[in-house]
Amino acid sequence: MMSSLSYLHNWRPELQLTVLNGTNNLRHLDFNRLLYRGVPSAKEIISGNGIFAFREEIVLTLKNRFEEALQSGSLSGPTLVNYYVEVLRYIHYCEKNDLELFTHSSAVQYCDFLYQRVLRRETKSTAYSSQRSKLNGVFSLLDKPQKWFDDVIVTSRDDIEPFEAYSQSDLKQLLPLLRALFKQTSKQFLASPDKHRIAYKNVQTMNFRWNGKYYPLCTGINKMMSAATFLLAYYTFSNSTQLYNLHRPSRTSYSSKDTWYSMPAFKRRSFKVIHVEMGKHSIDIPKYSMEFFDKLLEVSQCIDRSENALLLGICIGHKYRPLSGRTLTDFINSFLKKYFPMFDNRGRELRPQISRFRETGSQLIEYNQGDIARGDLLNNTLATRKRHYSTGNKHENQKMTQETALIRAVQAKNKSSISEARKKLDIKILTLEEYTKRLVPGLSRSAHGSHCKEPFGLKSEKFNRKAKKHKLSTGKRVACADLLKCFGCEHQVIVQSVDDIWCLLSFKESIEESLYLHLDIYHYKKNYEKTVIYIEEKILPKISKKIIQEAELKLLDIGRHPLWKAIDTVLFTAQEGSQ
Fold first, then answer.
1. Are 136 and 195 in contact (CB under 8 A)?
2. What is the spatial distance between Cα 225 and Cα 83, in angstroms, rounded to a whole number?
3. Are residues 435 and 457 in the same domain?
4. By the 8 A CB rule, do 288 and 182 touch?
5. What pLDDT is recorded for position 473?
6. Is the pTM of this model over 0.70?
7. What integer pLDDT is reported at residue 282 of this predicted model?
8. Which top-level group of life is the source organism from (predicted)?
C-alpha cells in the first residue's frame, strides 16, 4: 500500500539511499526531497503538499554519484551523510536567494554567507571550514571545476578549538556515577538476562541506587552499555568510531604471566586497522579496570551470543542492534541531565564525552611516558596530536598561570622565596602539584609489596631523625621506610594485584626462611612473629583467592621477588627496625 501511495504522488523508493552514519545508525538519504522546493519531508511529498522544482536531471545525477561512491568504497557512509546534509543547506540558501544550483556564483555566495556568520560569532571557523570542504566534495562528485573554490575564503587550519581534557574535579563527578551505574545494572542483568532482553522501552526492569535514592530504569540494557562505553573510552583512550566497531575479543597471552584482550578496529580516515588492548600487567593503572572489562565481556555475551559479535550492543524487545551515538545521546539527555545534572568549575554543563576522555588519557600518557608513547597509544600523527590533543584543561591552565604570576609578583616585591610567597598568598597546594598528584599515584609502594598513604607524614619525621642519628641520611628528607612497622600502621594500603601480593609472599617466605640464621626460636619470634601473624590473619584472608593463587603460582614458577632473594636482607630490615 505504501509503495502505491509513493508512486501516486511521485515519491520514488529507488531515489532513497540507505547508509550507516558516523554514530552507527542507519540513515536514509532521500533524494526525492531534492526534487521539490523547500526540500520537504517524504511525508509531505506523499500527502501531495510538495511543489515540484524541475531539477530532476541534476538530482538523479547526484544520487547516482553518491551510490557509485558508496559501492566503490571511495567515500564512506558517514561522509555521504555529511555531504547530503550540506546539500540540503545549500539548496535552502539558493532557493531563498534565487540562485541557480551548482554554479560558480552560487558556491562563492553561499560560502561568503557562511563566513559572515563566523565574523558575527554565530558559528566557529572550524564549522565553516567543514561546510566549505563538504560542499567542495559534492561539486567534485558532479565533476564541477575545483578552481571554482579558489575564489572562496579559506580559514587557517590552526584556527581550531582542540578537545579539552577533564579536570580532576570533573572526573570525581563522572566516574563514580558511571561505575556505580554499570556495576548495579550489570549485576541485575546477569541475574535474569531474558527478563531484560524481552522488555520494551516503557517497562521498568531495573533499579539504580545513588546517594540513598532509588531510580527505576526503563531500557536498562541501554543505560548499562552507555555507561560501559564511556568507561571503556576512559580506560582505553579510544575514539567513538573504534569503540562502536570493536568485536568481542578472546584472551591472548603475550607471556605466561600477562593476560591481554586484543580487539581489532578499522580506522576509516587513515585507512588502517588498529588494535585496542586491555591487559593485566604491572603498570600503575586502576586495578578495577580489568574487573570492569571482564564483567563487560560477560554482559556482552549475554546480549548477543553469536560468533564475531560486536563488543558493545543493546537489546530491546528481544531485538539486538549495535550501540550507536544516538543511544549515548539519549542516555545523556533523558537520564543523566534529567536526574544527575553536573557542572564543572566554570559553571558549564558537565557530561561524559568520548573525545574528552581521549584527551584526558593523552595528557596522562604524555606526562608519564612522553610524546612518543602518546603518539603510539593514540595512533595519531604529530600534527593531529598538536591540533586536537594538546591543550589540557582550560580551568586548570588558567589557575596555574594566575598562581605563577601572583607568586612571581610577591617574590619581586618582597625578595622572598617561592615557599614564603605561597605562605603569604595562602596557597596551600599549587594547581600544578594537584595535577601532578592526579597523574602520578598518591600511594608510595614499599619494598614488601604494600603501599603507604602518608610516606612523608609524622612517622616519616621519626624515621628521618633515626636515620640522621645513625648518620644514614644525606640531609634530604626521605619517606618512611620502617618496613616491619608498616604492618598494623593506619597508613598501610594493600592493593589487590598479583605483582604486589607476589612481593608480599616473597617477603613472608624470606622471613620464615631466616629462622635458621637466628640464635634461637625466641630471637626469631621477637623479630618477626607479629609481622607473620599479621600477614596471615589480617591481610591474606581479605585478598581475592584468585589473586593469591596467581601470586603463589608466580612464586613457584619464578621464585621470590628480586628484593627478597637473599635472606640477609630480611635480617638487615630487622636490625634497622630495632635501632
1. no
2. 30
3. no
4. no
5. 59
6. no
7. 43
8. Bacteria
